Amino acid sequence: MNDEALARAVEALRGATEVAVLTGAGVSAESGVPTFRGSGGLWRGRRAVDLATPEAFARDPTLVWQFYEERRRNLEPLAPNPAHRVLAAWQDRFPAYTLITQNVDGLHHAAGARGVLELHGNIWRVRCTACGLEREDRTVPFPALPPRCAACGGLERPCVVWFGENLPEDAFEAASRAAATADVLVVVGTSAVVYPAAGLVTMAAHCGATVIEVNPEPSALAGEATVLLRGPAGVVLPELDARLFGGGKGDGG
Ligand code: OAD
Q1: Alpha-carbon gap, residue 206 to 224, rounded angstroms
Q2: Which of 26, 47, 101, 236 has the greatest CB tally within 10 Å of its CB?
């Protein structure tokens, strides 16, 4: 990791009152969660974009649930890594702090983060397509697919944002406000090609924030980042945290 870039990131964060963080699949990579654009794999010969849609669910809810159930089974044993823990610890370090994620894996919450803005939903929540009742459910596997609403018997769906659907309004509004007022936006492990989430970076940059990117590879936002920290999040963030607040903080939870 470039020491000069690290020093610039430390300086920007030291002077910051409002800090926002936007994470993508890369923050969970060291926990064992595959990234989207890295793997490029098919599931039973189908692409994720052909399964994660309202049309696919209307056509074959069991098939769509089998896809999500496999993801839930793979995620179940995974634990937060040092990057998640640092980002959770920062909520008690900065006067104003907003953690925004595109991930549905729930690992920020598992690391102790509170009030995470989940722009793409959460795979551990389900919502009734008939009455709208939403609940957390960590059952893997479900006794029968698709699961049914205990209140009305309607079909339940995973509480994740599918292709062609809008982001949850409250979460996106809160994220937009945080991006617009942040002194520093830290962007961790996202290819920054999926909108409107990626647009938060442009908004923050236009509103005067210092944008710090943590990613081992170049991403679509290279031009917008003020400081590039090239390396895995599980290494870079603990190092940044140690420089800011002294060794070992956020690494014990
Ligand atoms: P991507 O798979 O597009 O990008 C993952 C990024 O993480 C890449 O830029 C990698 O270089 C980086 N990366 C890999 N390992 C890393 C590590 N150890 N530390 C830091 N970065 C690392 O995932 P997202 O940008 O999150 O949407 O994808 C955005 C959205 O596309 C997802 O939320 C999902 C998908 O369609 C929905 O589900 C709606």
Answers
A1: 9
A2: 101
